[in-house]
Amino acid sequence: xxxxxxxxxxxxxxxxxxxxxxxxxxxxxxxxxxxxxxxxxxxxxxxxxxxxxxxxxxxxxxxxxxxxxxxxxxxxxxxxxxxxxxxxxxxxxxxxxxxxxxxxxxxxxxxxxxxxxxxx
Length: 120
Hints:
Strand order of the largest sheet: 1-3-4-5-10-11-2
Largest sheet: 7 strands, mixed
Radius of gyration: 14 Å
Shape: globular
Order of helices and strands: EEEEEEEEEEE
CATH architecture: 3-layer Sandwich
CATH topology: Rieske Iron-sulfur Protein
Number of strands: 11
CATH superfamily: Rieske [2Fe-2S] iron-sulphur domain
Helix content: under 10%
Number of domains: 1
């Protein structure tokens, strides 16, 4: 599943502009699978809902250009659909060859039913 958003307004005026980016309504995330989210100004992201907890990573494999959302989730790992490299969804660390470089992870948070990430 791919969710394309250009902008979802934040109602929280206390946060500095640009530190929190809205991704999608929490109901759009498929449990135990990857949901690809494309938001202006960020690389494609993979959103995961595992055992009731949200995780957000880069969607592009660090070994090739494959979308990790097209891969297979097993436990807390995502397997790349191209070469079977694996990554820990919680930490971004590569856990199976040929993937050796980690993928970027993002800090998820929910505001008014919208899943977003903290961006430095």
